[in-house]
Write a structure and sequence with these properties.
The chain has helices at about 35-40, 70-80, 95-105, 135-140, 145-155, 160-165, 170-175, 185-190, 200-205, 225-235, 250, 255-265; strands at about 5, 10-15, 20-25, 45-50, 90-95, 110-115, 210-215, 235-240. With about 270 residues, it is an alpha/beta fold. The protein has one domain (about 5-265): Rossmann fold (3-Layer(aba) Sandwich). Strands 1-2-4-3-5-6-7-8 form an 8-stranded mixed sheet, sandwiched between helices. Strand 3 (about 20-25), helix 1 and strand 4 (about 45-50) form a beta-alpha-beta unit. Helix 2 (about 70-80) crosses helix 3 and helix 5 (about 145-155) packs across helix 7. The radius of gyration is 17 Å and the shape is globular.
Length: about 270
């Protein structure tokens, strides 16, 4: 099992393919599994790197608190461990998008292109658009049993049309063989998303090309967050909105998402 010792913890990662590096950062409570459709596609032309952030999956789960500075340094140290010196194409989804913004602020020389998927500025920034209260309550308290957590995921993370089309999805979540994330680690990750540093003000300092991609039916990060990112970044940003797509559109619409990323990566940096 590939493990890197970074920033005082053990971090699980996966590397495939060769070529220009593409780094995938998952969101809250999520692991490398989020990116299976992407790594399988992009490894044919790129070097893909995905990892389980601290607190999730096969990486260490220290008691916390966690901070965005921790997540940012974890990634920096992972790139050092992998001896990747060239700037990377960085893809962050949801919480991973906040990590990506913190990372490019802390280590701007390490990013060639930036993709911000189903995300927004930090939840501690006044420019964030919060979800409806009912959704926010489910994010904060997804349930105590596996069944409750799975039902929460299906109700707020996926577009209703996708769930209706794939009734087998619930059973797949219930039977997959992964260790559940400890409640303390979930809370520590969630709290880190409310970083009070000025993320919106930082956006204007991003000088690399940025793709902001969002689902029009995202309940967790409402679509307005994507427009806020594009406005803050300015002319370096482009926006793609996927129709009838929820929060986890990289699994709902992998072909469309992969093509949008590939087109973006092919443009001159």
């Amino acid at each position: 099992m590939p493990i890197a010792q970074v920033n005082g913890i053990n971090l699980y990662y996966e590397v495939a393919g060769s070529g220009e590096p593409v780094v995938f950062i998952p969101g809250l409570a999520v692991t490398t599994e989020l990116w299976l459709f992407q790594t399988a596609f992009f490894k044919n032309e790129f070097q893909t790197i995905s990892y389980d952030p601290r607190g999730a999956g096969r990486s260490d789960k220290p008691q916390g608190p966690y901070s965005m500075q921790d997540f940012s340094k974890d990634l920096n140290d992972l790139l050092d461990d992998l001896e990747i010196e060239q700037p990377v194409n960085l893809v962050g989804a949801s919480m991973g998008g906040v990590i990506a913004q913190a990372f490019i602020h802390d280590y701007p020389h390490r990013v060639k292109r930036l993709v911000l998927a189903c995300t927004g500025v930090s939840a501690g920034d006044p420019h964030v658009t919060f979800p409806p209260a009912s959704v926010g309550q489910k994010v904060a308290n997804p349930g105590t049993t596996l069944e409750e957590r799975v039902d929460t995921i299906l109700s707020i993370s996926y577009h209703p049309a996708f769930v209706a089309k794939h009734p087998e999805l619930r059973q797949a979540f219930l039977t997959r063989k992964t260790d559940p994330q400890p409640a303390f680690a979930y809370r520590a990750q969630l709290a880190a998303c409310s970083d009070t540093r000025p993320y919106y003000k930082w956006l204007k300092d991003i000088k690399v090309p940025v793709l902001v991609i969002h689902g029009d039916g995202d309940l967790i990060w409402p679509l307005q967050n994507a427009h806020t990112l594009v406005k803050g970044i300015g002319e370096n940003a482009e926006l793609v909105v996927l129709k009838e797509a929820g929060h986890i559109f990289m699994q709902e619409q992998p072909l469309e998402f992969n093509q949008a990323l590939l087109d973006f990566f092919k443009k001159p940096a």
